Amino acid sequence: SLSQGFGYGMRPVLCGGLGLLVDGGGQDHYTCDIYGQGAAYWYALGALVDRGGGDTYTSWQYAQGAGIHLAGGVLLDNGGSDCYRSHGVAQGCGHDLGIGWLEDHAGEDYYLSEGLSQGAGSANGAGVLLDHTGNDLYALRIGKNSQGYGNPRRNSGSLGLFADGGGDDHYLGAGAQDSLWRGSLLGFGGDFNLDATPGAASADATPTPEPEAPVLLDQEFDSLDTVQRLHVWAIWSTRVRHRWQAERVIVQRQLRERRDEYLPWLAGQLASAESWERHGIRETLLTFGEDALPFYAAVLDTAGSSSRGLLLWVLSDLPKVGDGDLFRPLLQRIPLNEGGSRGLCLINLALREKEHGGPSCRGILEAGLAEPDPRVRAAAAFALGKLPPEDTSLNSLIAALDDPVLHVRQAARLSLLADSTRVPELLEQSLDALDASAESNALLARRLLELLSLKDPDSAMRRIEDATPAPWLEDERRLQRGERSR
To answer: What span, in angstroms and rounded, lies between the C-alpha atoms of 202 and 88?
Structure first.
């Protein structure tokens, strides 16, 4: 926060100063929380100037050309295909007598925000977004207060201006291709085609071949002519699912048809994906089904831990992945020290089978009880409790009551509690096979005491007392007598 071209004052004591960041070029990644990337607060001026390159701007709020409380914030990008992502009050937004200005001169750019962005003014502020040329995507979750919107509060209201100078653009919000609109009393937007001048190109210039535009069922979105743009469309439409269901289905189908281009490109994007993007990536990959299994196998060997966790999340939701022959080789590609990812995947497998049926994952879960990482063993024990009880699984869980790690024993005990018929008998049969430790037998005793309606607690206690007398037995019996008297 408070960085990357940010000027600020100390309200209400001291007026602000000047914050300036100038980048000479290259592909840059700008990341901040609040107040940054060409923003200012309280009688100050902040500016970020990037002279070229495909850049990524990521922030939460009050950023990317935002002037807040009598201040001016400016973001100027002179070229390159850029991506602007923010929660809101950003991307050319002025608030409380502030002025916010975002200007992008060229490139195929993505502008993603929740709301009050992309040329928006609030509380007598003025916000401006100018994009000179390029095939751009403007996406909003709340479209009514952005893309040329001035909030009418405070008598004279606020000013919001939005202008796109050329290219084939697509809008999720108030705007539309080749049109003018009015978002409020002092809110104006326009998509122009100023760069489409016949004969403007040099005769000696080599014409750039036109990319193949996808045919999206009965609709044509010419601006979605690369897998990158299709990807952004799919991810963002997942977030605003209640508004763009039909479009999301169309775009996901296009991505499946372009899988040979899309999946290798996606492999390089997983590590830098934000948390909200991961949900969209998951939903998109699930539509690929088992056709993407070779992709998962290749990426699991080279991706980072967070990317592997995401792919395991996807894999465990595939309808046929419970089949051990399909899933176990992929699970084995995950390093043993990433027990958290492996464990969550086992739990997801069990929940998917419980809700939707399909091939049983019981064998994978039982094998998980023998993993060296206690996180995996605990997850496997918990997951087995979500499946219908079978003697083999129950015996594996009973054996896990002797695990040296406490939370593994607790997970096994909770799963045994889920069954109320075969457990008491199997427990008594297993006492001699288990290690004769006071701790393990105490767990078994408590389990039997909790099943009062099915077994006589006195006989159960005598059975354990004969095996390994221990001082804790009297405490357990007193506790039990007190519960029965109440």
So the answer is: 41
From the number of C-beta atoms within 10 Å of its C-beta (0-12, 13-18, 19+), residue 340 rates as middle
Q: Kindly give the confidence (pLDDT) of every residue in the chain, 486 residues in length, as a single tens digit, with 9 standing for 90 and above.
A: 899 999 999 988 888 889 999 998 888 889 898 999 999 999 999 999 999 888 889 898 999 999 999 999 999 999 888 889 888 899 999 999 999 999 999 888 889 888 899 999 999 999 999 999 988 888 887 778 899 999 888 878 899 999 999 888 888 888 888 899 998 888 999 998 875 544 444 344 444 333 333 333 334 444 334 666 677 767 765 655 545 566 667 777 778 888 777 887 777 777 666 666 777 787 788 778 777 777 777 777 676 666 777 777 677 666 655 444 556 666 666 665 666 667 777 777 777 667 666 666 777 788 888 888 888 888 888 888 888 777 777 778 877 877 888 888 878 877 877 665 666 666 666 655 555 454 555 555 555 545 434 445 555 555 555 554 445 455 555 655 565 444
The domain ranges of the chain are: 6-191, 288-419
| Integer angstrom CA distances of residue 203 from 195, 197, 207, 266 | 17, 14, 9, 38
